[in-house]
Design brief:
By secondary structure, this protein is α+β, with helices and mostly antiparallel strands. Helix content is 29%, strand content 34%.
């Protein structure tokens, strides 16, 4: 990955699905950021992306030198109407691109776009209480720690917590 060119964060397109599927699949198979056990194929990832876009919510990618390095999206926090102003974020960055500002660029733009469509709260459900990089990323962008759900997932032969963080999108920082 070249480091002398800017990171471009842009809306995803159907042409990005193969790279999105690859990044997410690697996260499923090697990480605790998602509690999925079997990596979905490109057909499933296309359906998931379409579902987000049908909700008129952002689904973004980050690229550098025309190489897709990560993706992020906001989905409905819960399906009931009372939650309609709250979204849950998801951010995934390829292993080779981590700790280089890609996640921060994606999440920053996701926050902007969620504000633009009138969302009021953003929730982060972070897999693994030991996921210091994701916790630090969210904290750096104004998310506050809400709590830990202990031992709610079982992956890689161990029990895993989730960390809940929240950002009020109506407060400027």
């Amino acid at each position: 990955m070249a480091t002398n060119t800017e990171i471009l964060v842009r809306p995803s397109t159907s042409h990005d699905i193969a790279a999105i599927t690859e990044i997410y699949g690697a996260s499923v198979m090697t990480g605790l950021g998602t509690f999925e056990i079997v990596a979905p194929d490109s057909t499933e990832m296309t359906a998931r992306r379409n579902n987000i876009l049908q909700q008129q919510l952002p689904y973004l990618v980050a690229e550098q030198d025309s190489i897709l390095l990560g993706f992020a999206y906001a989905g409905a926090y819960r399906p009931r109407p009372a939650y309609r102003h709250t979204v849950e974020n998801s951010v995934y960055v390829g292993a080779e691109a981590r700790a280089k500002g890609i996640g921060k660029a994606l999440l920053s733009q996701l926050i902007v776009e969620c504000k633009e469509v009138g969302k009021k709260q953003m929730i982060a459900v972070i897999g693994d209480s030991g996921n210091r990089s994701s916790i630090a990323l969210h904290r750096s962008l104004g998310f506050r720690f809400v709590g830990v759900l202990e031992n709610v997932g079982f992956k890689f032969d161990r029990w895993v917590d989730t960390v809940i963080m929240q950002k009020n999108l109506e407060i400027e920082e």
